[in-house]
Amino acid sequence: xxxxxxxxxxxxxxxxxxxxxxxxxxxxxxxxxxxxxxxxxxxxxxxxxxxxxxxxxxxxxxxxxxxxxxxxxxxxxxxxxxxxxxxxxxxxxxxxxxxxxxxxxxxxxxxxxxxxxx
Length: 118
Known about the structure:
HIT family, subunit A, 5-stranded antiparallel sheet, globular
């Protein structure tokens, strides 16, 4: 992994503004600047791991906290009962563009199917 600071690290450090939805000691959740659903919030661990596989291998408890934060975000956003999706994109072919693991919390409307781009 490159030593270059990621966009998310700069948001965590409050060097770049973001609309923070929820924060714990180890995670921060903020609105995506290019939302793909009515509700689209990113949940990022404050400690940088490249992707979800790296995080799961290195710190399963932190991965659990990321998922717990995603559930809390769904509750705070009022979508926990109607349904929501939690997505981790891993590597370029899956659409990962920032190489600091993050969960997308999507909901607030009927979501389509996912998979191959048509």
